[in-house]
Write a structure and sequence with these properties.
Elements (H helix, E strand, L loop, with lengths): L3 E5 L6 E8 L4 E7 L5 E7 L3 E5 L6 E8 L1 H7 L1 H7 L10 H10 L3 E9 L2 E6 L1 E5 L2
Antiparallel strand pairs: 1-6, 2-3, 3-4, 4-9, 5-8, 6-7, 7-8
């Protein structure tokens, strides 16, 4: 069974210039630059949580995929088992998180890396803005 819903073109080999989470507005904004020097912005709205690791000065993306909620719980089982008791991401139990994601139509976006930053974003919507 495939967990992939879709892949987002336009981010492969992009360098991450900055990212900013606005917890009050429930958004996460990431600016990237292509190898040709064009800016591509990624804006997540309805942000529930995000988790990035390996963040360095010169992060280069491999790409971004949307996966199923079931795929998320399978792929990140160990992480969630270790963090859910501390309220991450935003719930006290796996069951509560799954119910909340279903109720609020939260989608799962996986960010893969060539170098540095990788992880996931849990949000209702994503928009890529290219020139």
């Amino acid at each position: 069974m495939s967990t992939l819903i879709c892949s987002f073109d336009g981010l492969h080999d992009n360098r991450v210039l900055r990212y900013c989470a606005d917890f009050d507005a429930h958004t996460l904004h990431m600016d990237t630059r292509t190898e040709a020097g064009e800016k591509v912005s990624v804006r997540f709205t309805g942000l529930l949580a995000h988790w990035f690791e390996n963040v360095i000065q010169d992060n280069i993306l491999f790409g971004m995929d949307e996966i199923t909620v079931d795929g998320f719980f399978e792929q990140y089982k160990d992480l969630l088992d270790g963090t859910i008791s501390y309220g991450f991401p935003a719930c006290c139990s796996i069951e509560e998180l799954r119910e909340r994601m279903d109720r609020e139509h939260i989608r799962v976006f996986i960010i893969d890396s060539c170098l540095g930053l990788c992880g996931f974003v849990l949000a209702q919507e994503v928009e890529l803005q290219c020139p």
